[in-house]
Amino acid sequence: MKAAQEISKLEPRRNRFDVEQVRKDFPILAQKVHGKPLVYLDNGATSQKPRAVIEVLNHYYAEQNSNIHRGVHHLSERATAAYEAAREKVRRFVNARREQEIVFVRGTTEAINLVAQSYGRTFLKEGDEIIISAMEHHSNIVPWQMLCEQVHARLRVIPMNHDGELVIDEYRQLLNEKTKFVSVAHVSNALGTIVPVKEMVKLAHERGVPVLVDGAQAVPHLKVDVQDIGCDFYAFSGHKMFGPTGVGILYGRSELLDVMPPYQGGGDMISLVTFEKTHYNVLPYKFEAGTPHIAGGIGLGAAIDYLAALHWEQVSSHEDDLLAYATGALSDIEGLRIIGNAKEKAGVISFVFDHLHAHDVGTILDQEGVAVRAGHHCAMPVMQRFGVPATTRASFALYNTREEIDALVKAVGKALKVFG
To answer: What are 130's strand-pairing partners?
Structure first.
């Protein structure tokens, strides 16, 4: 009966998108900052959490707290069941073929490092080439630079045009017999550009080259289907998709995960240990050494449940409207220049003033209750490409409104008055 009641509560959301109702699910949005209503536009850094996720975390620590996989007592069995149920929710969320292809990690950064060190150090050698793009987050640059130093491989970079779009013809030319791996973002965190990853995977696979997709900025905004994309690895973080911090996912095709050595050694990634030899556990546990973020994994499952109860087309339409409305409103401000005008964008707008530093703008906006990100956004090569030290970035989520964009525009006007 209770389950039926819960389903009935969610049914209206499947028929329409009610942003005001959604906002009530996020308790943090009701507060004031510096005496002003909070306008949270820093979702590219981390999203806020719905009450359903917060309650699941509280429930775990209050009623289920126990280590998983190893215990035979009641609490351990309950915690294990909840954690593994979350793995299945993730599998369905990204449409992986089987649960064994879903590896729990701390976040996108660890997932990329895992692939670089496990797959990369095993299968790449001196003279091989790795392709990334000019719009990558540092987390999808530095691990590959480290790998190149370790095995004496070469890093190649796909350029982008002045609109912040990758030049696919240049990518085609970079692919050659030396190319052994490709790693690209699905959505740029600094520009909002949606990258044509399906096409890029197809081009790489024509040469037998595996591809990792950094989906950290994509999963909150796009319907992700790893089988449709065709990628070999897909990485994302829970905290950007309304889940807890400190937990993320690496999807990997089981054929590749099977032949990759463990990334870390310790408990739970083994099946037998002697002083002479260790036998590793089966997938996915081979890559899950030590006690995981159990509450985080269960909380991520709750975040997926929350998203599954929403109508994705309605959410996408709402976010598209926010992006178009904000782009138009900000473009009307004299002296403001938007960095990144790709034809296909997610809910991110980065902007600059020639005579104001992004940090100064961000500080004034905070005084007006508007939370944005100011800086290089862990994408310094992007800033260098556009010749700016930093940008002010407003990034949207499904709970944002046009009225909040109006507040952003008004706060930017206040910044211009303060600094002249």
So the answer is: 155, 181
